[in-house]
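Continuing the series of single-chain predictions for the mutant panel. This is the parent chain; the variants come on the following pages.
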Amino acid sequence: MPIKYHWITLGPGAVSGLIASGLCDNGESVSVLSRHNRAATIEWQLVRAHEKRNYKVPATQLPIPKNSVFIVAVKAFDVISALQHITALEGFDKSMPIVLSHNGMVELPKTLRQLNLHPMVTTHGAVKSKNENGIIRIEHRGTGRSWLEVRQEEPEPWSTLQQAFPPLVLEQNTSQRRWLKLIINCVINPLTAIYKCENGKLLEDKWQSQIVSLVNEAVAVAETQNVVLDAKMCHREVLRVAQETALNSSSMLQDIKQQRRTEIEQLTGYLIKTGESADVATPTHQQLLNEFQKRYG
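Parent structure:
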């Protein structure tokens, strides 16, 4: 008899809420682990095209079930504290799978690197807010694709996740995809935040020489981390994402507008520091970071 897994969603945030909604639709056992909401049940509304659907699931109870799988999709600067919070839960076992999705790159301490982590890269676009009644509202603005890092001998619980959050491709190494996403984010996020424009504006000719420089520098840094990417392909991907999300505001621009903390240090800052440690210059990224800090501190 197949194991029935219990899916624990941290938040829910925008991406984790999308996943939790799909799991609920498929009749899976789902609970929400919230660090701020003490309610016995957590509610949210998913908005997709012209459809609205409401969800209500229990808050995670302790001790957590032995067959638990965690969904952690957070801001890069919250990754370490989120994982530390999970590992301190009553009933937690470090063999429990943790799906981890975030922008940027994060250096984990040794204790957290020993966890059963499964990095996930996704191009889905989603925004979290609250409606007039204070209920969490998750708007699915752009259908994308996702890639999950798994070991070859692990068919489960991942087929369940593939059904709930399609299309999801299982791969043994997602390093290339994570670096490609980092490069895309290091171009689109700071530029749109500095110049307060929608993503589609970056398709204009006046941006292209700067974008090419940003991409070339980032590809050179990736190579020092044993990740080989083609610069022309990366440039095409940046423009493809800008085209697909033309009317969207980047997550960094949204953070600026809402006066929230941004991920500039986990994106541009990480790229510059990694380049410095490998003697690879990143002057265009440094210029962008300087401009960002001048405007926003």
